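Appendix B, record 7
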Amino acid sequence: MAIIAFKAGKRPSLSAKRASNADDAALAKSKVSLFFGRLALVIVILITLFPIYWMFRTAFSNNRAMFSEPLSLLPVDFTFGPLQRVLGLATTEEALAEGGSGASINFGQYMLNSVLACTLITVLQVTFSSMAAYAFALLNWKGRDKVFAIFLIALMVPGIFTLLPNFILVKDLGLLNTILGIALPAMFMTPFAIFFLRQFFLGVNRSIIEAAVIDGANHWRIFSRIVVPLAWPQIITLGILQFIQYWNDYLWPFLVGQSETSKLLTVGLGIFKSQTPQGNPDWAGLMAGALVAAVPIFILMLVFGRKIVGSIQSSGVK
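Structure tokens (predicted):
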């Protein structure tokens, strides 16, 4: 009987061993897949970050010596000259000695203009868009869904189609070469901003609003005291996204703002590139200007990057 029991006991042990081997094989396969997945992710990240690194490399290179080693991954003849030229700290002789064009830009004025224009657009656009999103999400009125559908259709209209009408309007208002003229077409509301906030407002607990109505609160009080505090992370995220978008805008500021008091930084860098009395653009100086111009955006993304991703996911934007 002991022999029979011993022999009978071998079968579950063998099946358990096979199951263990299968688990080990699945685990090994999972580890291999995870390794190649991470390797692919690292490659994609490196490809994405390489242009930024190349901008750093070029910004600290000697523009005259840079073309002698075009494939060098390190700055060629490391120098702070390009940054000094862009910030107006280098003389024309020093710029020409390093292969610069000798041109200069009013970097501080252009940076201030960009900050003023983008801040004006962001604050007013987010304010008015949040009001419109509240009306589309939490108020019941005739034709609401049809009007919102029209707003969604506006998302499919390329911005180039509105350049000429907006330019004529700004010109007729006498706002050419002004910060207000640059900000006017975008500072009220945009379909994307309304859609972004509406998606979150739809998830607001209606019982809270109903309780506020019973207590006698009007719509403005409900919006400012209840809805806005609940949606504050999404509102901040929308503001950051819009600030970045208009900070990088070039065509519209180029058409409207040509004076020194209204020229934005993107336009100033474009003009700096075109000023080439020596025959070749000052690529090192241009990359130095782009690097300094990108610093505010880098800071915003480092500080609020995680919040931006989380807010987009919670708002239902795919």
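Remarks on this record: DSSP finds 14 helices and no strands in the chain. The chain has a mean pLDDT of 81.
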